[in-house]
Design goal:
alpha/beta; seven-stranded mixed beta sheet; 7 helices; 7 strands
Length: about 220
């Protein structure tokens, strides 16, 4: 997979060994996330924010039909995008910037959060995963998580959700809270340091703040 369409924002610290945070974002909002992160933690980190993704395709683990009348199918190309991310994009950025991260964190919101968890089953590249309001309603994903082991490099996982998200009018989205609770239980039973934080509001409230909270937790754990 060759990708010259991605938008990359980088926020590098003077410490080349500081934790590397990789955030897949729906929009170019790196400066907002960085500002929110700086409000709640002083821990040094090197942040890479990737946007202009094929959102419904790059971040989904397998194809599904449209979830609403006005939606498009999800192509399920997460494995191809992940392969590009860990074999080409990130190694190139790390080499050019001279980064030698002592810890690597993969973060995302919504489908980006789903992708972060999925990556934990597929690669040893990351030590910590952050899924803020993750799309854990995704059909068959909970079954996949139950049937497959996480990679041994994954030491901690942050999950969050809005307390109104389960009240979506779309029946496909309504299991999101039950699935998130079940995944939290499953990961805890497997001995992974895991936290689930509930936030006030639906899926579209305080995206950057929720994202920053998750990243700050991962930096501290």
């Amino acid at each position: 997979m060759e990708r010259d369409d991605l938008v990359i924002e980088t926020f590098f610290d003077s410490d080349k060994t500081a934790p590397l945070v990789v955030l897949n974002s729906y929009m170019k909002n790196g400066e907002i996330v960085k500002a929110e992160l700086d409000k709640i933690t002083s821990i040094e980190a090197n942040l890479i924010v990737i946007s202009n993704l094929h959102w419904d395709d790059d971040l989904t683990p397998w194809p599904i039909p449209p979830i609403s009348r006005h939606d498009t199918p999800c192509q399920g190309k997460a494995e191809q995008y992940l392969d590009h991310l860990i074999k080409k994009l990130l190694p190139s950025i790390e080499e050019k910037a001279g980064l030698r991260p002592r810890k690597k964190i993969l973060a995302g919101y919504s489908l980006g959060g789903l992708f972060a968890i999925y990556a934990g089953f597929k690669t040893n590249y990351f030590d910590s995963l952050v899924s803020a309001s993750g799309s854990l309603w995704y059909p068959s994903f909970l079954d996949y998580a139950k049937e497959n082991p996480l990679r041994p490099t994954v030491k901690s996982i942050y999950l969050s959700l809005g307390d109104r998200e389960k009240h979506s009018k779309n029946k496909i989205l309504q299991p999101v809270e039950d699935n998130t609770l079940e995944l939290h239980r499953l990961l805890t039973e497997r001995g992974i340091e895991t936290i689930l934080q509930m936030n006030a509001g639906n899926h579209f409230v305080d995206e950057e703040k929720r994202m920053a909270k998750g990243i700050a937790w991962a930096l501290n754990n």
